[in-house]
Design goal:
mainly beta; 4-stranded antiparallel beta sheet; 3 helices; 7% helix; globular; binds calcium ion
Length: 375
């Protein structure tokens, strides 16, 4: 029998797509739907906080019952990639009720930038409200445009607050010590700067920079759009970031490290201008893993549970354009993708629940919250 190449190719595509669905090692149970959900975090009682990009913060039970929007959330500058972003709990949330929200904040003359607010969450019969809202961090300077806020927020094991800050599609600020764009920042829980950050003495060493700089909060530089940060099982910080055309990166983030953007990247500019690859400039830290074609990472976590027993210690990345969850094995300062789970939708976020199940947010206007448990 003669089969045309075209027919064979399309049969293979259908077959492999069906195979991908059937071969997923987990069941995905839809729990609820949201309008452009961006982030989720578990409360100590097992309910979830979920953010929606237009500015809503909701409390959601594990069976999908939603509170009314929490009151007194800061005004967000919604548009493009901006709006309400990440939510994370203070390590002592059970005692102090403190949460952190990141969002795009409007500035003067059509500028905007990411900000992080700290607030006390108080529940009431209407749902809840935020008290003592205090903005503890801002991207500097505010610039025009609607992209690359980054703005994931996470606590490290030592109680410091990590913030990822994108380059706002302006490229060079990622290497500019007078901007906190294209950086990973390390703060105390009240927003002050730890005395042992790597660049606290930068002004003394580089007297030509002006003294309104933000260098004292910088932990690492040369990042593009880090949409995921996570702490591994040894307490080490990692980030995952969108590359330009090609070159998405997973980085082991070390004190004072320069990750090279926009001077080097394993991708190139969208207008096809070349960016030299990482191996041309060994003084910049090369990624532990990188992807061309891209996966478009939207979030990063390390799996700590027992439910997916083999996955303990692995990183999981949420894939936007790749519409997948990517599992990555990490070994010291190297890493490699070991499996990719096709989800059929852009995946914005992936978080581990209290019993080791995975909770996933799809991206977009009708993004579902899914609970993944092993088959
Ligand atoms: Ca390149």
């Amino acid at each position: 029998m003669k089969v045309s190449h075209l027919a064979l190719a399309s049969w293979l595509m259908v077959a492999s797509s069906a195979f991908a669905q059937n071969s997923l090692p987990f069941d995905a149970q839809p729990i609820a739907s949201f309008d452009e959900p961006w982030a989720l975090a578990f409360l100590p009682d097992g309910r979830l906080l979920v953010t929606e990009k237009k500015g809503n913060l909701l409390i959601v039970t594990q069976d999908g019952k939603k509170s009314r929007p929490i009151g007194n959330v800061p005004d967000v500058d919604y548009g493009g990639q901006g709006g309400l972003g990440d939510v994370t709990l203070h390590p002592d949330f059970a005692d102090n009720g403190v949460i952190y929200l990141s969002y795009a904040e409007a500035g003067v003359d059509d500028t905007r930038g990411a900000a992080v607010a700290r607030a006390v969450l108080t529940e009431n019969e209407r749902g809840g409200t935020l008290d003592d809202v205090e903005v503890i961090w801002r991207q500097y300077p505010k610039v025009m445009g609607y992209g690359h806020y980054g703005h994931r927020v996470a606590f490290g094991r030592d109680g410091h607050l990590w913030i990822s800050s994108g380059d706002r599609q302006k490229f060079t600020p990622a290497q500019d010590m007078q901007s906190n764009m294209g950086k990973i920042l390390r703060l105390n829980d009240d927003g002050s700067t730890p005395d042992d950050n790597p660049f606290v003495n930068y002004l003394r060493e580089e007297p030509l920079v002006d003294d309104v700089g933000v260098y004292d909060e910088i932990w690492s530089l040369g990042h593009r759009n880090p949409l995921g940060i996570a702490i591994d099982l040894d307490g080490q910080l990692w980030d995952i970031e969108m590359g330009p055309k090609g070159g998405d990166e997973l980085n082991r983030v070390v004190r004072g490290g320069n990750y090279g953007y926009p001077i080097v990247s394993n991708g190139d500019h969208y207008d096809d201008r070349e960016i030299p690859d990482h191996d041309t400039r060994p003084e910049f830290i090369a990624p532990a893993a990188w992807w061309t074609p891209v996966i478009s990472p939207g979030d990063l976590m390390f799996y700590r549970g027992d439910l997916f027993g083999d996955w303990r210690g692995d990183a999981l990345a949420a894939g936007l354009s790749s519409q997948a969850i990517v599992r990555i094995e990490v070994d010291g300062d190297s890493a490699r993708e070991v499996e990719r789970y096709e989800m059929g939708k852009r995946i914005r976020s992936v978080v581990e629940g209290p019993d080791g199940a995975l909770w996933v947010l799809e991206d977009g206007a009708d993004g579902r919250l899914l609970k993944l448990t092993p088959k």
